[in-house]
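Comment thread on ticket #2218

A.B. wrote:
> Attaching the input chain for the structure job we discussed in standup.
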Amino acid sequence: MQEHPDDFSMVFEGAAGQGVQTITSLLLPVLRKSGHHLFSCTEYMSRIRGGSNSTEIRVTGKLRRACVSRIDLLLALTPHAYERLHARLHERTLIFAEKETFGEHWDGRCIDTPLSRFATEAGGAVYSNVSAVGVVLAVLGIPLERCTAYLREQFASKGEAVVEHNIKAAQLGYEFGVQLSADRKPTLPEPSPEQPRDSLMMDGTSALGIGAIAAGCNFICSYPMSPGTGVLIFLAARAKNFGIVVDQAEDEIAAINAGLGASYAGALAMVTTSGGGFDLMQEGMSLAGMIETPIVVHIGQRPGPATGLPTRTEQGDLDLALHAGHGEFARAIYAPGTLGEAIDTMQRAFDTAQRYQIPVVVLSDQYLLDAVSTINADDIERLSVKPDIVETDKEYKRYAFTEDGLSPRGVPGFGAGIVRVDSDEHDEDGLITESFEMRRLMVAKRLRRLEALRREALRPTVIGEPNEAEIIAVSWGSNRGVLEEALERLDDRCVAGLHYSQVWPLAPESAGMLGDGRKKIVVIENNAQGQFANLLHRETGIVAARRILKATGEPFSVEEILEKLTEVAHGQST
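C.D. wrote:
> Ran it. Output below, let me know if you need it in another format.
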């Protein structure tokens, strides 16, 4: 019997260039057509070739959005697999590898799998990953026909010979896998009757891109920097269909300034980058605040400082986004944790930027961007996002004082007025001023919109019954899925959860939902110091009793959070 009959975890390991991503890209659609819930995430080294990369696929009986430490099936393509992943293996883990290359850790769990020979017979070493797919499908009891049909579809453009080589490779692997004794073959969770036919499978990058397109984004300018580059690529691939101007700038300074220029002309503009690139955009953020021009900035977080671990994950840039840019001005920051939140908050980011004429940041991370799961098509909602632009007259004042601090926004060429903007302090007409009184009024004007931003801030998502709970676990951004599953497994009514997909400004109900200091607060973050815990303390006065932190470059696993929450629930010390 499997230890977790409703959850099967597979990991595929190999060096860059060995096709680990190909294995995943072939298995996921075949498994999905079988009616299973799926979650997949990747981790890889910053090397062109070599190293040791891995992808996890979870096949589950219900929707899951988190990774687990446990490995039930490991397919290893390099001898480095054991040294990297041995702590995640258990006594019943199935390990498929070539004995000659696996190394000294070969034991009774290992099955000598001649992928190199299969690939050679099929047409060349490049086909070893497809043979691996055949092995896995056979072991899982999934008909090979589902894979061969997909192979024909995927490789048709490369010619019949390539198609036949791939099918041959898959067949050889499949024939090997079916010979595995029945007592060693795992049992997959039952296909879910709740999995709708129109569910969509995608990664976080695609979800953010869909949200940007739904919002009407028609200009993106960026300098490539992983892991934020994927959003640029997604929009560029669809630029012709959706009328998006795509500009790859010479650096991040140019990128945000081009975005502001496009926005000044009336475009719904965004840039995408990572923490190191956003460092260079800070003067542009400040410029956006001064000239009251909307811009959406997506930051795909990765570990720093400096280059850090450029292909790993972290939530270390909240403070950077919160304080970026000299001077004081309003901004909003969103941090989605699911596909649905990614699509929703990207639209909200554009809407907020347009209505309040401010820079808005969307914080994601490598884990969220690369993780693959499913979303019901019916759960995708298109929000109304309209540029709030007026036709100007000859008396138009770009920075006219109003009760809410929002001046009517005009763009050049739409009306008879002059749309004058200036990075120096200015008066209502946009003319440079040295007046201390005008300075006081303009600072107050720019900050006044924070009041409305706070009133409209998204409330955190409730997990469980916080009113009844004694302990409230708090997450933000990509940690929503791991918190939800850990709380479900904990099954203790004394512990509930709150998840924030908007981290600035905080919803005014936050303090009340956190118990106004009467409950024990636990904050979960992928950083070293607890940046969101510090923000909660500053804004609500509530001190986190426990901070569950991780800054290794890895995401949290369900087991890690479950263990920590169990300690807190049982009153154990840190």
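A.B. wrote:
> Thanks. Noting for the ticket: The first helix runs from residue 20 to 33.
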